[in-house]
Amino acid sequence: TAEPIQRPQTMCERWRQSLLEHYGARPREDQYVPQCDALGNFNPLQCHGNSGYCWCVDESGREVQGTRSEPGVPPPCLPSLAPPTVQPSPRPDVTPPATGTFLLYAQGQQIGYLPLNGTRLQKETAKTLLSLHGSIVVGLDYDCRERMVYWTDVAGRTVNRASLEPGAEPETIINSGLMSPEGLAIDHFRRTMFWTDSGLDKIERARLDGSERRVLFDADLVNPRAIAVDAIRGNLYWTDWNREAPKIETSTVDGANRRILVNKDIGLPNGLTFDPFSKLICWADAGTKKLECTLPDGTGRRVIQNNLNYPFSIVSYANHFYHTDWRRDGVIAVNKDNGFLTDEYLPEQRSHLYGITAVYPYCPGARK
């Protein structure tokens, strides 16, 4: 008998595979894995594992507004049924932090808040800032001008934001044309954002409200992950952990003058941060286990720390780097001057931490 013809993977199947990789191939029973039919189309009914929380989706897998239901009440994804009389589910609770300096980190379905006292981690006052049921928050950045936190969600395939003001509600600003949005960077000068999509192998930009969206790059990308912007000089930096040829690249914020910055002696460059004070671009590499920095022209490369565990995301603040780590499932502080690991915070709930960003009361070099 003839072999069945291998058809290319559908959107549903690729998204499913991408999420399974995020869960380490073993999702918990309450985690979302897209349900595809035999042809690879999205099942009209989608649920969070066996939790009973279900909703209907359209052909491209986007949630149909107003169809989310509680356990025991199946949503009406069949046209023969009457529309649901489901009360809108309550918004995730937002507990705005006090002013001052703090770190925000992504941990699965929540964004955590970890205050700093100088550069020390104030672990005893850490708490959840946002609970986002059903999300997997990966990329995280902060707009210091309007005091808004922005994040990517690879489960919802969205880019979202929420103000840090009391009573603020999360809003979705991009919800189409995304597969696995991972890295996110905010340019507070130009009021734009950039993100990497490791499912579609693209780098895109848009205004902070999601308008004027355009693709910057969709060629020569295999596994784009972290992205960072130097807003003052108008430069963009990103990593690609392509196992065959990992690299860090740079261009202007408009996508001009793209070039490779680093492609030697790197393995799995997961995290990337631009330090506006030293003007260094620095990365955390889960392959080489190193934290390294270089000048924006690729010269002056030096190793800060060569014994990391499994870093995922990194941010620079004052004389420290802070990175999330998948072996420790925590936030690690590294002194920039001597490379010492000075502190760590391990949340009680153990699970992978993804993006991390620093929030301080001013904008670096901002025009008032």
From TrEMBL:
<feature type="repeat" description="LDL-receptor class B">
    <location>
        <begin position="191"/>
        <end position="233"/>
    </location>
</feature>
<feature type="compositionally biased region" description="Pro residues">
    <location>
        <begin position="72"/>
        <end position="91"/>
    </location>
</feature>
<dbReference type="GO" id="GO:0017147">
    <property type="term" value="F:Wnt-protein binding"/>
</dbReference>
<feature type="region of interest" description="Disordered">
    <location>
        <begin position="65"/>
        <end position="91"/>
    </location>
</feature>
<dbReference type="InterPro" id="IPR050778">
    <property type="entry name" value="Cueball_EGF_LRP_Nidogen"/>
</dbReference>
<feature type="repeat" description="LDL-receptor class B">
    <location>
        <begin position="147"/>
        <end position="190"/>
    </location>
</feature>
<protein>
    <submittedName>
        <fullName>Nidogen 2</fullName>
    </submittedName>
</protein>
<dbReference type="InterPro" id="IPR011042">
    <property type="entry name" value="6-blade_b-propeller_TolB-like"/>
</dbReference>
<dbReference type="InterPro" id="IPR000716">
    <property type="entry name" value="Thyroglobulin_1"/>
</dbReference>
<feature type="repeat" description="LDL-receptor class B">
    <location>
        <begin position="234"/>
        <end position="278"/>
    </location>
</feature>
<dbReference type="Pfam" id="PF00086">
    <property type="entry name" value="Thyroglobulin_1"/>
</dbReference>
<feature type="domain" description="Thyroglobulin type-1">
    <location>
        <begin position="9"/>
        <end position="77"/>
    </location>
</feature>
<dbReference type="GO" id="GO:0060070">
    <property type="term" value="P:canonical Wnt signaling pathway"/>
</dbReference>
<dbReference type="InterPro" id="IPR036857">
    <property type="entry name" value="Thyroglobulin_1_sf"/>
</dbReference>
<dbReference type="GO" id="GO:0042813">
    <property type="term" value="F:Wnt receptor activity"/>
</dbReference>
<dbReference type="Pfam" id="PF00058">
    <property type="entry name" value="Ldl_recept_b"/>
</dbReference>
<dbReference type="InterPro" id="IPR000033">
    <property type="entry name" value="LDLR_classB_rpt"/>
</dbReference>
<dbReference type="GO" id="GO:0005886">
    <property type="term" value="C:plasma membrane"/>
</dbReference>
<keyword id="KW-1015">Disulfide bond</keyword>
<feature type="disulfide bond">
    <location>
        <begin position="47"/>
        <end position="54"/>
    </location>
</feature>
